[in-house]
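Request: Mind sharing a record?
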Amino acid sequence: MRLAVAEKIRHVRRKSLIGQIVVTLIGAQLLFVSTFICLPVPIAAGNNLSDYLHNEAISVVAHLPAVIRVQLLDRYADLAQPERDVRFSLYVPQCPAAVFAGYILGCQLGLIASSLYLILGLAGSWAGLYLFAAGGGPGYYAQSGFGYLVGMVVASWVVGRLTAGPRTSLRQALAILGGVASVHALGLTYLILAYAAQRMLEMAKPQPDWYAWIFEQARNLSWYALPYDLLFSTLLVALGFPFRWLVNTLVAPDIAPKAKTPPRLEEIG
């Protein structure tokens, strides 16, 4: 009796160790570069943003041809008003970089890349490497913003985990919200607990204005940055699909040979 069994060979995608190392180092380098990017952005308050847009509109109209400029000024009298005072703050896009790293590298490599950046920042001072905005070294844990760096590690894993399945708009939106929330939740929690621990270790009573100091730090590190973290994280994720495909190609190259026709196993009994 002849029994013919047709079986297709599953196309195996073997992961490349060298590829994983390369993309992980690139991810850590991305986080390092983001530390030293400072963008002056208008504070995200309603009146302040409207004043900023008003000034930008005036600047655009001023560069238009005279005929068009006159027509716009006649139609929109508000453009003839003088520029308004706008408050700016310096924005460092570390949180979007962590979200982007988690999205393109995945939860495992994203976690390794962000952890590597954090470890090198703490230990790199021994080799003359200062990867953090205010320097680095083992004592950097005492900085008020250190919790946000820890949050970046968690955010990379969260984003990679939530986008591990099919690439849907809902998954990406949840990943962005989860990643940004991880950074700011851990950052604010560390800020409060670190201050409380310092007071306890020094056996000192809280300063009368301790709440004002914490509010100022939270305002500078979270309140001012949060809207832009969401905005730039969304933009990077929206533009990140080609990079994600490239990383997947480098990490798991298509090295298994393709069979033109499935082999046929024959058993004669």
